[in-house]
Each structure stands twice: as structure tokens, then as C-alpha cells.
Amino acid sequence: MDFDKMISVIVPAYNVAEWLPRCLDSIIAQTYRNLEILVIDDGSTDETPGLVDKYAGADSRIIAIHQKNQGLARTRDRGIREAKGAYIGFVDGDDEITPEMYEKLLKNAIQYDAQISQCGIMYCFYDGRRKPVYGTGRVKIYNRIEGCAALLDGSQMEPSLCNKLYQADLLKDSCLDTTVVNNEDMLRNIVLFDRAQKSVTEDFCGYLYWRREASMSYNQDAVRIGRHILKARRQILDYVPDELKSIAKSNYITGAINTYNSLLGSALQESGKLRQECIKILCDCEKEKLELSKDIRLKVWMICHTPALYSTVRKHHIARRNRKIRKQAARIGKESEKERE
Predict the structure, then answer these.
(1) H-type helices in 65-183, by residue range?
(2) What is the overall mean pLDDT for the chain?
(3) What is the pTM of this model?
(4) What is the pLDDT of residues 134-184, one digit of tens each?
């Protein structure tokens, strides 16, 4: 391992005081020690600023940056401008990473001469559940087109910036739209994978993504986020080269379906308007006779032609999923009680 290669880790931190110590402790504990840790307090109104300064005072590798609230994309851009490392990684302030994550990612980047090195993600829930994505241990190499296709397809690769390590020069001016607040990772990543001649994945779950369940259903937030999803995926569709247009269109359709799903049951006028916009997107795409999976084709057809039936089926699916989640959480709770006895 070439320990002259500094890694700059960018940690945007906005009102994450409850979780920031867990995050920073996991970065400090990395087996790869040549780190620069840029913790950017994005105008927090809780105890985050004091925690950032406390950690910076205790570890010389940590650089505290305070700014007025700029939003996630602009905060990351500032970190990119300030970073001095040959490689750059991102960790969200309410998540954590396994001790060997950056050592493995850097080793793979060097070994395979890849501009992007990535791993899998472990989804962690506060009820005790954990979901690996995917944790197979396999190593896979992508060229530029293959990497972009895998990103857009989503079956092999998570769109997050945080389970990846990038050559620093790849990241300059990489954000297509700093106003996008949902799917911003995918929007930036399509540029990065388009720039990278080679990327590598070792599918171990090095990034621990903690899911804070906060319902946005049936309120204005769901509408706002839905519009950002469609905006981001439309920009991706416009950006990609011709050989990726088909898979980017499928990605756009998936975004419209997910947005439609998030608004089902809402009586808000704005929700109704956005549902109709989603239906128009899907019906227009249906006429194009695109190559889509059977599952996606069925959802498109039902939303366009039998929306009431689709809503009923969707409600039953959610109820069944929630029952399964409650059973899993109860089982984990019982197992934890036995371990404590």
C-alpha cells in the first residue's frame, strides 16, 4: 500500500449532533491513517458546531469548517475545493464506516488503476434490522459505459457518493445542478462515471447507512422531493450519450413510478397535479415501446390504464411489507433480550 496517497474525507454536517460522534469516531478509527477529514458545519442550529470544533481540537487530521447554510450539493463542492488529498471520499454526518473501508477502496483503486473504487452498503435501522446491499464479496471492473449503465440500472450499484473513493481531479465541476435536493448523488455520479475510464467494485458492506424513518407521506415535502427526483432524472436523461439513452429513460420511468407511489392517498391539490404529471410521463413512455422489465411494464400499464386497481394493490403490498418489518423487529428485540440475560 502506498501510504503517500492522502485521502480527503468530506463530512457535511447539518443538525446531526446526535449522530456526529458515531460518524467521526468511525473515520478516526480507519486502518488507513493518511487522512484529511474535512467536517463542514452547514449552518447548524443544534450542538453540531461545538462538536465539530471539539473533534478538530482532538485530532490534527480533522479540519473544522463553518459556513452559512448552503445545502448538501454546495457543501460538498466546498469540500472538494478545500481538499488536498489525491483521493476524495464522502461520509454523511449521521452515518458511519467500517474500520477497513478506505484501506480496501484505495488498494483496489491502485491495483486496478481505477478512477473510482466502491463497495457495498449496509442499511441499518434503529429497530435493530440490518439489510446488506449486497455483500457478495465479488470484485467487478467497469469501463466508462458499463459503469454509467450499472449506475442507472441500479441492480448492481448503489447511487450514493458515500460508498465510493474518487481520484480528486475527477470531481472538479462535477455537479450538474446544485439546487437538486433528492437524487443529487446519482446526478453527480453520472458525470463522474462518464469521466472515469475504469471503476472497480469490491462488494463488501463498508458503508453503514443509518435509516431515520421520517414519514413524508401526504404532505408538501413529498411533492417537493418528488419534483426534485423527476428534475434530476430528466437532467440525467438529457446528459447521457446516445448509447445510454434507453437505460436512462428506464431510470426516468422508475423515478416517475416512485414519485407516483409516494403521493398515493394524498388529498393535497399539489399532490394530484404531480400524480397527473407522472401519469403523462409514463403514458408517453409506454407509447415508445421501450425495453423494460416485466415488473416495470406492468406498473406503467396499471398506472396509465387502471390507477384505482394499482392503488389497491399498492396498499396491500405496503401492508404486507410493514407486517414483515414488525415481525423482523420483534424477533431482533427478543434475540437482544436473550443476549442481555
Answers:
(1) 72-82, 101-111, 144-153
(2) 93
(3) 0.93
(4) 999 999 999 999 999 999 998 889 999 999 999 999 999 999 999 999 999
Q: What are the phi and psi torsion angles at 94 (to 5°)?
A: -110, 10
> What's the CA gap between 280 and 304, in Å, rounded?
8
Question: Lowest mean pLDDT: which of 24-38, 75-89, 291-305?
Answer: 291-305
Residues 162, 141: Cα–Cα separation, whole Å: 19
Distance CA 328, CA 139 (A): 31
Q: Is the dihedral of CA 283, 289, 291, 292 positive or negative?
A: positive
Could you give the C-alpha distances from 183 to 40, 98, 149, 204, in angstroms and in order? 21, 24, 16, 23
Q: Rounded distance, CA 145 to CA 279, Å?
A: 30
CB atoms within 10 A of CB 336: 11
Strand partners, 130: 124
Q: What is the DSSP string of 167-198?
A: EGGG-TT--S-TT--SSHHHHHHHHHHHH-SE
Question: Domains in the chain, ordered, with CATH?
Answer: 7-211 (3.90.550.10), 220-321 (no CATH)
